[in-house]
Amino acid sequence: MLVYITPLLALVAIIIGIIAIVKSTSLPIVEEEVKTLLHSNVYLQTKLSNVESETRLVANQNTSLEQSVKNQTLISEVGTIHIPSIITNKGTGSRTDSIDVLFKKTYAVPPTILLSVHQLDVASPPNIRYVVSSEDVTTTGFKIKLTTWGDTILFSCKIQYTVLKNVN
């Protein structure tokens, strides 16, 4: 049995010697590189964790912003109305043409109306005077009024209306 142990002890001694040589020559360099890599890994894991936290925060803010936009006043419908001049195309002084507009649906409360003039057919006097307004707004419709005064002659007017539903 001693015959087998001696070669085994010799082999162990050789391995220990090799380890000692490797340890004394290259191990400090390898240990330093390992330390640097471990430090870099910890740094990158921290950065990744921060990015993930910021991503969750931005996602939550985006959800809040989307909800806020949904809770704001929104465009409900848009239409164009042509007002032919019956009264505003002759005479002088204050004159008004009007037309009733029905909504495409009934609203729970009277909505807000935005008006914009898209076309105005006018005689060419020195001054062009007109006012476009919405009046008598209800849950089912409203009235558009086209008013002029002085010597202005209006032949027709095309108006776009935008209905804003109020969401609370």
Number of domains: 2
In which range does the helix fraction lie? 40-55%
Name given to the CATH architecture of the largest domain = Sandwich
Largest sheet: 3 strands, antiparallel
What is CATH's topology name of the largest domain? Immunoglobulin-like
Strand residues, percent: 25-35%
Radius of gyration: 42 Å
Label the overall shape: rod-shaped
CATH class of the largest domain: Mainly Beta
* End-to-end Cα distance: 94 Å
Q: Report the count of strand segments.
A: 6
What does this structure look like?
This protein is an alpha+beta fold and 168 residues long. The chain has 2 domains: 2-69; 74-165, Immunoglobulin-like. 40% of the residues lie in helices and 33% in strands. It is built from 2 helices and 6 strands; from the N terminus they run ααββββββ. It has helices at 2-25, 27-70; strands at residues 74-84, 95-102, 112-122, 131-135, 141-148, 154-165. The strands form 2 sheets. It has a 3-stranded antiparallel sheet, with no helix packed on it. A 3-stranded antiparallel sheet has the order 2-5-4, with no helix packed on it. The longest helix is centred in the N-terminal third of the chain and has 44 residues, at 27-70. The chain is rod-shaped, with a radius of gyration of 42 Å. The model has no long low-confidence stretch (mean pLDDT 78).
Provide a brief overview of the structure.
This protein has 168 residues and is an alpha+beta fold. The chain contains two helices and six strands; from the N terminus they run ααββββββ. The N and C termini lie far apart (94 Å).
